[in-house]
Write a structure and sequence with these properties.
- The complex is a heterodimer of chains A (about 325) and B (about 500).
- Chain A contains 14 helices and four strands.
- Chain A is an all-alpha fold and about 325 residues long.
- Chain A folds into two domains: about 35 residues, no CATH class; about 240 residues, Orthogonal Bundle (MetI-like fold).
- In chain A, strand 3 and strand 4 form a beta hairpin.
- Chain A is flat, with a radius of gyration of 28 Å.
- The N and C termini of chain A lie far apart (about 65 Å).
- Chain B is α/β, with parallel strands linked by helices and about 500 residues long.
- Chain B is globular, with a radius of gyration of 26 Å.
- Helices cover about 45% and strands about 10% of the residues of chain B.
- Chain B has two domains: about 150 residues, Periplasmic binding protein-like II (D-Maltodextrin-Binding Protein, domain 2, 3-Layer(aba) Sandwich), CATH 3.40.190; about 250 residues, Periplasmic binding protein-like II (D-Maltodextrin-Binding Protein, domain 2), CATH 3.40.190.10.
- The termini of chain B are far apart.
- Classes of the chains: A mainly alpha (about 325), B alpha/beta (about 500).
């Protein structure tokens, strides 16, 4: 009887359903865990990017028939002075903004952590505040700061004896792009203060204590301990900010729409205007999704290039403590 | 047993999926918006015997012959300076009159973006029946319905009177037409020009009615002498075009004595390039004269329309270039009793010549051609409804828009309720030799990216010239070359 039972069990064991097989289980687990994420990535990121590459070979107004024009959009793009002007503006923003944000955030984070102010919590909220405001609100706020007639900046300058005579900071080719930088810095610092504070807090206090015992001053501690040990976080911050400043354009769209005379135009805005802006010539609207997609491909190359440059300049070094 | 259970579970899951798919595919054909309903209606209409005919007559509205079957119209509404109250009034009265019609509306100041997203989705059911579908963009691809027949229709509230006979003069001239198909239908009218605070002008004794360019320059000098900037506008969105736009090309042609030839060329000649034309050069030269004299405010390029209009309200500038909706748009920002005055910026120096104004007999909607016939028919009825006297009056009273019916515009009792700003505008139109042009061309130039760049340079250049900073000849030469290149690119693409 026992022998029979044993035989039956061993036969059942050999008929294990395929999905109970350990290899299959592993694949099912991977599919369940990664599937939804990959589906979303494909639907909302990869597929639109593939379509962008596809559209770049067409002349298409977004609603009518697409006309295949081969590489003509790319030929046009290579000799497009407006695009290079926009790229230059992007480069200025991508060089200035991340640098200023990182410098100011590191200093503020270092002070808030090391000085242990009673009001540190309040400052954290204060610095983080711009991050909870929508970019539209931020843009409008700064538009009014720079207004020639009622702007805060001119009034403050007036208080210290500088009369700007109703100067519109966003209305001049010479000052418009520079005027956008403080906005990006103001709205970016708060987030990185929080990030860097957490990074600094994770550095063992013993390192600072021994440095103090050996007579290291504040600056030495900042440059010899803090900065090297949070360099990884800084590097990620720089990558995010550089890429963000190349991609972002909504603030500029609201504040200047790329003007005056393209002095604040950036690649993203240039692309957006080709695809969506209503330019009427004698009653005819002109949308060009094909050329906008080509600019999108250019932006993609710029972003990859920027990423490589940042990686090259700020090498990732493993830190142990 | 366990295996059986698994198979059963699998079957249940399959059933659920199949039911969902069937459900989704059915939804396309159910309800008033489905093409099946339209087909059924047409079948009903086609297969009527005499007995059925009487029955059928009871099933249709005598006013328009359309069936009483439930139907839903999807409408995308541009919520701009005129607000939405008048539209809601039209919608409510229309659905009260025709209770089988349900109107679902999406209101947005960026409705064009919503429309583009829906077009991209390529789902006819999801697409709006009526939306601000710009006539040239969609008409060129025949994606919207021609509206020629609507002009031949009798008005709902004035039987016996056809639309074409009741519209104000000029409405037909500003139509949007491609290959004989008219895609625009006027429901209200707007006019651009210079708007100012009447009280400010009275206080300083400034000339409120400069009839010639020289008189206008003297006015600007008088204003400037009081320390106030004569003119402002939104450079960010090219609001100067509401005073000095395509209209001034006509005026220059009138001044030089070839208006008919020019009109033909501008509207029908594909080879004619308005950007950079000699008419534009003359127009910009006059503007440059004003710019060099410092008659425009500082920082124009950074001003949005609200900022520029506030400058006029707060007397930092005397006049603002905008359109008649300014009255409604700024009503919450002005003191009680504030009254907008209106004048054009004349380029003529002979007061007997015509001043050309930019304006349009506004078309709020285009009808999506791919929709079922029955939807398109009801959509047309809804458009026609906007010409009812009561709806027109709500546009006048609530939206601050100008009426398009002659009988309303000429009826003093009706015009008593018009906003003062609008009244001043109509008075100006009635007392001056003016013509409203929209700048619409009847030919469709196919262009490449350079044309869009040319337009960008044109809008930038206009500001530069108004600031007295850019030489019109140099700027227009560059714009002309770029536009020409754009046309070449368009030709190349079509080959």
């Amino acid at each position: 009887m026992d022998k029979n039972n044993t035989l039956t069990t061993s036969v059942e064991d050999t008929k294990v359903p395929w999905y109970k097989n350990s290899q299959a289980q592993k694949w099912i687990f991977l599919a369940v865990v990664l599937g939804p994420a990959f589906a979303c990535y494909f639907a909302f990121s990869l597929y639109p990017n593939i379509l962008t590459a596809y559209y770049s070979f067409f002349r298409w107004d977004g609603v009518g028939p697409k006309i295949f024009i081969g590489l003509r959009n790319y030929e046009k793009m290579i000799t497009d002075p407006f695009l290079y002007k926009a790229l230059l503006n992007n480069l200025i923003l991508a060089s200035a903004c991340p640098l200023l944000v990182i410098m100011i955030s590191v200093i503020l984070a270092y002070l808030l952590v090391t000085r242990r102010y009673k009001e540190a919590g309040f400052y954290k909220v204060l610095f983080f505040l711009p991050n909870v405001l929508s970019s539209v609100v931020v843009a409008l706020l700064w538009t009014f700061i720079y207004d020639g007639q009622w702007g805060l900046l001119n009034k403050v300058l007036e208080l210290i004896g500088i009369d700007m005579g109703g100067f519109y900071w966003l209305g001049s080719e010479k000052t418009a792009l520079l005027a956008i930088i403080p906005l990006y810095v103001w709205s970016g610092v708060g987030f990185y203060v929080i990030v860097f504070m957490n990074a600094i807090n994770s550095i063992p206090a013993s390192l600072y204590e021994s440095a103090i015992l050996e007579g290291a001053g504040n600056m030495q501690r900042l440059f010899k301990i803090t900065l090297p040990l949070i360099s990884g976080v800084i590097r990620v911050g720089i990558i995010f900010m550089v890429l963000g400043s190349f991609k972002g354009f909504e603030t500029i769209l609201i504040m200047t729409n790329g003007g005056p005379y393209s002095s604040t135009n950036v690649i993203g805005l240039y692309m957006f205007n080709f695809a969506f802006s209503s330019t009427e010539i004698g009653g005819f609207n002109q949308h060009d999704f094909g050329y906008a997609s080509t600019i999108g491909m250019f932006l993609f190359v710029v972003l990859v290039g920027a990423n490589l440059i940042v990686n090259k300049l700020f090498k990732h070094e493993a830190v142990e403590y | 047993m366990r295996t059986k259970l698994n198979i059963l579970s699998l079957l249940i899951v399959l059933c659920i999926i199949l039911t969902s798919i069937t459900g989704c595919s059915n939804s396309k054909d159910t309800g008033g918006t489905g093409s099946e309903t339209a087909a059924q209606n047409e079948t009903k209409a086609g297969s009527s015997t005499e007995a059925e005919k009487t029955e059928h007559e009871e099933d249709v509205y005598p006013e328009n012959g359309l069936p009483k079957d439930p139907i839903t119209l999807k409408v995308g509404f541009f919520e701009g300076g005129y607000g939405r109250a008048y539209y809601d009034y039209a919608k409510d009265t229309f659905t009260q009159k025709f209770p089988n019609v349900k109107i679902e509306t999406v209101y947005s100041p960026k409705i064009d973006t919503v429309v583009q997203a829906r077009i991209a989705a390529n789902n006819v059911d999801e697409m709006f029946d009526l939306a601000p579908l710009y006539w040239s963009t969609y008409g060129i691809n025949k994606q919207i319905e021609p509206l020629n027949d609507l002009y031949e229709r009798e008005l709902y509230d004035t039987p016996g009177v056809k639309v074409k006979d009741i519209l104000m003069d000029g409405a037909w001239d500003t139509r949007g037409e491609i290959d004989g198909n008219v895609y625009t239908f006027p429901t209200n009218m707007w006019v651009g020009g210079l708007f100012y605070d009447k009280a400010l002008f009275k206080e300083h004794g400034w000339n409120e009615d400069p009839k010639t360019f020289d008189e206008f320059k003297r006015l600007c000098e008088d204003i400037k002498a009081k320390g106030i900037t004569p003119i402002t506008f939104s450079g960010m969105y090219n609001y100067l075009a509401f005073s000095v736009g395509w209209n001034k090309l006509y005026e220059i042609a009138e001044i030089n004595g070839y208006i008919d030839e020019f009109t033909q060329k501008y509207e029908y000649d594909l080879e004619y390039i308005p950007l950079g034309s000699k008419e534009m050069l003359e127009s910009w030269s006059k503007l440059f004269e004003l710019g060099k004299a410092g008659y425009f405010s500082e920082g124009l390029a950074s001003l949005n329309h609200t900022q520029s209009q506030m400058l006029a309200i707060q007397h930092k500038a005397a006049m603002v270039s905008s359109a008649d909706w300014i009255d409604n748009e700024m009503k919450d920002s002005v003191e009680p009793g504030f009254e907008w005055g209106y004048m054009a910026l004349p380029f003529i120096n002979d007061p007997n010549q015509t001043i050309y104004l930019i304006g349009d007999f506004a078309t709020q909607f285009g009808i999506w051609a791919a929709k079922p016939d029955i939807n398109k028919k009801w959509a047309k009825e809804f458009m026609l409804w906007f010409l009812n006297k009561d709806v027109q009056m709500k546009q006048v009273e609530w939206a601050g828009a100008l009426p398009v019916r002659k009988d309303i515009a000429s009826d003093e009792s009706k015009m008593a309720s018009i906003r003062p700003g609008q009244k001043n505008l109509l008075t100006y139109l009635g007392t001056h030799k003016t013509k409203i042009v929209s700048g619409n061309r009847r030919v469709t130039p196919k262009t490449g990216p350079s044309a869009q760049q040319a337009y960008k340079l044109y809008t930038d250049g206009l500001v530069k010239v108004a600031e007295g900073k850019g030489d019109p000849e140099v700027l227009l030469k560059e714009i002309y070359e770029l536009q020409k290149k754009g046309i070449e690119e368009g030709k190349q693409d079509s080959q």
